Amino acid sequence: MRGYSSAAPRMALNSTIYKVELQVSDMDRHYYATHALTLARHPSETEERLMVRLLAFALYADDRLEFGKGICDEDEPALWRKAYTDEVELWIEVGQPDEKRIRKACGRSHEVVVVNYGSHVAGIWWNKVGASLARHKNLTVLDVPDSTLAELVALLQRGMRLQCLIQDGQLQLMNDADSVAVDATVRMAPPETVS
Questions:
Q1: Residue 166 included in any domain
Q2: Residue 50 lies in a domain
Q3: Number of domains comprising the chain
Q4: CA 46, 48, 51, 56 torsion: positive or negative?
Q5: Torsion over CA: 58, 59, 64, 65 (sign)
């Protein structure tokens, strides 16, 4: 016979669900598609991080690009793209992942991208790990400025219809009323992709 506790059961914290229709016109990669996305925002995830995940999707949009479990699972990135053989082609992290996690990602994936944000914390993180990351030839690190981050968060709604235009390395994210120009700084990139 099971014991009975008079204490109320603890409620599990629920994620907030965001539905996004994202139309991507990437003239640099000649990729044009509309994606119906569902983003789950974990209670511990900030609005900024959620929008950086969406931005990362727009930058690297592909039919096989998926959101990982991220915060909930140490073995999955924020986003990833796998080959049909289940081999990881692209591993995307957002924020300031620890160096060990990046090393692991660089060993598991053909290409690794870190979309870094939060200028003060981002600078501290880069000063700590930047020199040791330089040896990874399949790693790209992008910085999103704080001013852009605030504009991205202003677009956030539970249901969003967004258009993304990418041309000459510049990204424009738009809804019916507003437009955000995203000028991410490349802190580090493989030699063949640096322009």
A1: yes
A2: yes
A3: 1
A4: negative
A5: negative
Domain span holding position 98:
17-193
Phi/psi of residue 160, each to 5°? Answer: -130, 140
Mean pLDDT, the chain cut into blocks of 10 residues (195 residues total): 40 80 98 96 92 97 91 82 95 95 96 94 94 95 94 96 96 96 93 59
Longest dimension (CA), the chain: 70
Rg (CA), the chain: 18
Give the pair of three-digit tokens for residue 18.
Answer: 């965001």
Q: Considering the domain boundaries, does residue 165 fall inside one?
A: yes
* Per-residue pLDDT at 73: 63
Closest Cα partner for 193 from 124, 95, 119, 110? 110
Query: What are 1's two structure tokens?
Result: 């016979």
DSSP state of 7: S
Q: How far apart are CA 145 and CA 163, in angstroms?
A: 20
CATH code of 118's domain: 3.10.640.10
Cα atoms in the Cβ-side hemisphere of radius 13 Å centred on 38: 4
In sequence order, which residues have a C-beta less than 8 Å from that of residue 111 and are 6 or more positions away? Answer: 89, 90, 91, 138, 140
Rounded to two decimals, what is the model's pTM? 0.89
* Cα–chain center distance at 74: 15
4 lies in some domain? no
